[in-house]
Design brief:
The protein has nine helices and ten strands. By secondary structure, it is an alpha/beta fold. The relative contact order is 0.13. Catalyzes the 2'-O-methylation of the ribose of cytidine 1402 (C1402) in 16S rRNA.
């Protein structure tokens, strides 16, 4: 049947794409993408010639009708984003939900995703994690998000801009404390790939010593909250206070 393929593309290294993805990109009637020039570079690296259609957050509602109509006409379309898996902090959600609501066929073609790539080599717990998307760029909002996650026991994965890395790590020190372990995975699959782990406090010194760390793209991973085994819980303190009051 005519299908919308959700095709993951590389996050840097153009070779990180599956055979199946390349075959689909070569054979669909149309490729819906974010930046047509960016997608053309990927296509020409793999000697694929095909038509592209630009898709942005601001024209997504118009495109969803257009794409649904094309599927009903029997065409197949691939949806790609500039990097990684579409819909993951990228456009496509409205289209996919519209097509699913109309019982049209949507097939995922798996591949790179910066969040999962970073997590897999972070050294932090991977059994349970949460993906938190982009951290807010303003300090107040960022500190609020971090404060709400203070007691989150799962590993937390964020997208952030390296130029804000020092401000972000300072906020982590302020809100979550200097001992919280963090990992920054920068320029994944590219020439200057760096995956650095340290406690938030020591991370600042490292970042401030190397301005190159503030360039490119990064994933930030924060270790989940671990209760201090020596800490007495507020509930236990309440019980003890009550017991003491009866002993007087
Ligand atoms: N859909 C993409 C995915 O599956 O990872 C994410 C798109 S989002 C608009 C772009 C963000 O992903 C960047 O700001 C950065 O946080 C992260 N990212 C993308 N490529 C990366 C790379 N090569 N290294 C580190 N982070 C990357």
């Amino acid at each position: 049947p005519s299908t919308l393929y959700i095709v993951a593309t590389p996050i840097g290294n153009l070779a990180d794409i599956s055979q199946r993805a390349l075959t689909i990109l070569a054979h669909v009637d149309l490729i819906a993408c974010e930046d047509t020039r960016h997608t053309q570079r990927l296509l020409s690296a793999h000697s694929i010639k095909n038509k592209t259609l630009s898709l942005h957050d601001h024209n997504e509602s118009y495109r969803q009708t257009q794409i649904a109509e094309m599927l009903l006409e029997g065409k197949s379309i691939a949806l790609v984003s500039d990097a990684g898996t579409p819909l993951i902090s990228d456009p496509g959600y409205h289209i996919v939900s519209h097509l699913k609501n109309n019982n049209l066929n949507v097939v995922p073609i798996p591949g790179a995703c910066a969040a999962i790539t970073a997590l897999s080599a972070s050294g932090l717990a991977t059994d349970k994690f949460t993906f938190e998307g982009f951290l807010p760029s303003k300090q107040g909002a960022r500190q609020k998000v971090l404060a709400e996650l203070n007691n989150e026991p799962r590993t937390m994965v964020f997208y952030d801009a390296p130029r804000r890395a020092i401000d972000t790590v300072k906020d982590i020190v302020t809100v979550l404390g200097p001992d919280r372990k963090i990992v920054i995975a920068r320029e994944l699959t590219k020439t200057f790939e760096t995956i650095h782990s340290d406690t938030a406090g020591d991370f600042l010194t490292w970042l401030e010593q190397d301005p190159n760390q503030l360039k490119g793209e990064m994933v930030l991973i924060i270790e989940g909250y671990k209760a201090d085994p020596n800490e007495i819980s507020p509930k236990a303190i309440d019980t003890l206070t009550l017991l003491l009051s009866h002993m007087k």
